[in-house]
Design a protein that fits this description.
The protein is α+β, with helices and mostly antiparallel strands. It has one domain: Outer membrane efflux proteins (OEP), CATH 1.20.1600. It is 69% helix and 8% strand. A hairpin with an 8-residue loop joins strand 3 and strand 4. Helix 1 runs antiparallel to helix 4, helix 2 crosses helix 4 and helix 4 runs antiparallel to helix 7. The longest helix has 69 residues. The protein is elongated and about 135 Å long. The two termini are 57 Å apart.
């Protein structure tokens, strides 16, 4: 019924072997690396830059047109022309239309820059959650290693009591069962830690199998999250909401532009002649033209289309505003929930579970309780430790989600 000593020795030394004096993973440095190397952030930034360039194109006129005319030609391909003309023509957008078009492009560019900032905030919040998940996995590995050592000690006590006829053989068997479970818990914790490390590496743009050092210890300060106090800051600074406001401004400018399509655009032409006739040779013409919006059903249709898009953008803005406030409400509720549990477990429950185990161990050694009571007390302590670290990590993760709403530590 004995477990091979080499396996037990390896499992008990596993956390130390995994660490191997590597420098600790710092949260601030990790987030800076995510911000610089994450490909989703890079893609959002590239898209924002692309739309910034479109703003420059919005007010530039179309390319000029250069035409070569050969008039009164009597040969093939225009040869033998008595008159040769160079015509340069430039179309000019109505200045009022050009201004509205530029304003719409600027607002649309603002939408993608705000989307980029929202992507940064949400990716950093995801990175924080991954960091705390990795830290939690490391804590689990540590407490399961400690639990393995504790169960080994309890197993020795059960075997010793059985050898001197003070305990039953079933207690010794139960101890070996608990020892096998403890070994499996430690192995599982190591696998979960490996998965969490791969996620951390992925978010910072590295190979998932790259070796990752242990994280620095964290302790997020617990404070009440006031929804009413936070809502004003979130509505003023949330980049996703700012993006929808920019899209609404762009659609309003497009609606004004559609209404302005009834106004004409302009065209300027310059022509120079080369001819055998001295009276015509070297002369030039200048002409100014304008467009005539004669298709009267076109402009109203454009206006109706732009108005529908404006109404859609307005509805999307209100929906985004409600979603942000709903997310804030959920975050504040979760923060209060995990803060309360974190304080409860850290203040009383954990210490009570430790005292319960000590009392159960003393009672079992004195023959005043059975081995099942001792096992139950050990399981309670193990579960309490695991839950306490989970509550602390969840609280820190939800704090990260709160800061993602504005990109700041509120």
């Amino acid at each position: 019924m004995k477990t091979p000593g080499a396996v037990l020795l390896f499992l008990s030394l596993l956390p130390a072997l995994m660490a191997e004096e590597l420098p600790r993973l710092n949260l601030k440095a990790y987030l800076a690396e995510v911000r610089g190397n994450n490909q989703e952030i890079a893609a959002a930034a590239a898209l924002a830059r692309a739309y910034s360039e479109k703003v420059k194109l919005a007010w530039l006129p179309a390319d000029p047109v250069l035409e070569l005319e050969r008039m009164y030609a009597d040969g093939a391909l225009g040869s033998g022309a008595a008159e040769r003309n160079f015509l340069l023509r430039q179309e000019f957008r109505n200045p009022w239309k050009m201004r509205l078009q530029k304003n719409a492009a600027t607002a649309e560019s603002g939408y993608f820059w705000a989307q980029k900032n929202d992507r940064i905030n949400r990716t950093l919040a995801e990175a924080k959650a991954a960091f705390y998940e990795y830290a939690l996995a490391c804590h689990h590995e540590l407490i399961y290693a400690e639990n393995l050592e504790l169960v080994k000690r309890l197993a020795r006590i059960a075997e010793t009591r059985y050898s001197i006829n003070q305990g039953s053989q079933s207690d010794a068997i139960k101890a070996q069962v608990e020892l096998s479970k403890a070994m499996n818990m430690l192995i599982t914790a190591g696998q979960e830690k490996e998965t969490a490390a791969a996620r951390v590496n992925n978010l910072r743009g590295r190979d998932p199998e790259e070796r990752l050092p242990e994280p620095e210890a964290f302790d997020a300060p617990a404070a009440p999250a006031d929804y009413k106090a936070l809502s004003a800051a979130v509505l003023a600074k949330n980049p996703a909401l700012e993006a929808m406001a920019s899209r609404l401004r762009a659609s309003e400018n497009k609606l004004s532009l559609a209404r302005a399509e009834s106004a004409p655009d302009f065209m300027l032409s310059w022509r120079r002649r080369t001819a055998g006739d001295a009276a015509v040779n070297g002369t030039y013409d200048v002409s100014l033209g304008l467009t005539l919006p004669l298709w009267f059903t076109k402009q109203p249709a454009m206006t109706r289309e732009a108005r529908a898009e404006r109404d859609m953008s307005s509805a999307e803005y209100e929906a985004a505003r409600n979603d942000v406030l709903l997310e804030l409400k959920e975050i504040t509720v979760k923060l209060d929930y995990y803060r309360r549990l974190k304080d409860l477990y850290g203040g009383t429950v954990l210490s009570q579970a430790e005292l319960s185990l000590k009392a159960s161990e003393a009672a079992y050694q004195a023959g005043k309780s059975d081995f099942l009571d001792l096992i139950d007390a050990n399981r309670t302590l193990l579960e309490t430790k695991r839950e306490y670290y989970e509550y602390a990590a969840d609280y820190a993760s939800w704090l990260g989600r709160l800061s993602s709403l504005t990109g700041e530590s509120l």
